[in-house]
Amino acid sequence: MATTNGPRHGKTGKPIDSAKLDRVVADARKAGEERAAGYRDQALKLYPWVCGRCARTFTRENLRELTVHHKDMDHDNNPPDGSNWELLCLYCHDNEHQKYEEHLAALAAGRGGARGGTGIQTTHNPFEALAGLLKKSD
Q: What is the Cα–Cα distance from 31 to 80, expressed in whole angstroms?
């Protein structure tokens, strides 16, 4: 049992069993690593060792820098055909997740719209007269 001098819960003030918390975190990390190892090995067999964004190629020497990205951001969606995966280098993978976080923040702020727009309204339409020009040329 945790001592009364240790960390306490922010709302209840009860002592926190940090040893139990450490075990839960360690178990969750281990399960995540085991799950990732399975789909990573499978993705590396299915796809060429090339980043799907920057086209950087990888060899056995730097393969640790190639990651598996889940297109729908659901790490539990691992179809055997690999249709939810793409291989990305560390940098492009971080960039994809950053873009996703920014998209979620924009939606939360009411700037995203259903199609993920920027919230900026444009007034100029460069193709506005195109239909009329095409009819004249017929």
A: 19
Up-side HSE of residue 2: CA atoms within 13 Å toward CB? Answer: 16
- Angle (CA) 83-87-88 rounded to 5° is 135
Q: Kindly indicate the confidence band of residue 6, based on its pLDDT and cuts at 50, 70 and 90.
A: confident
- 57 secondary structure, DSSP code: B
Strands (E), 4-137: 66-70, 85-89
Give the number of other CB atoms < 10 A from CB of residue 39: 20
Separation of alpha carbons 58 and 84, rounded Å: 21
Q: pTM (2 decimals)?
A: 0.55
Q: Which residue has better confidence, 55 or 4?
A: 55
Q: Which of 115, 128, 135, 50 is nearest to 89 (CA)?
A: 50
Altogether, the residues listed in the chain come to a count of 138
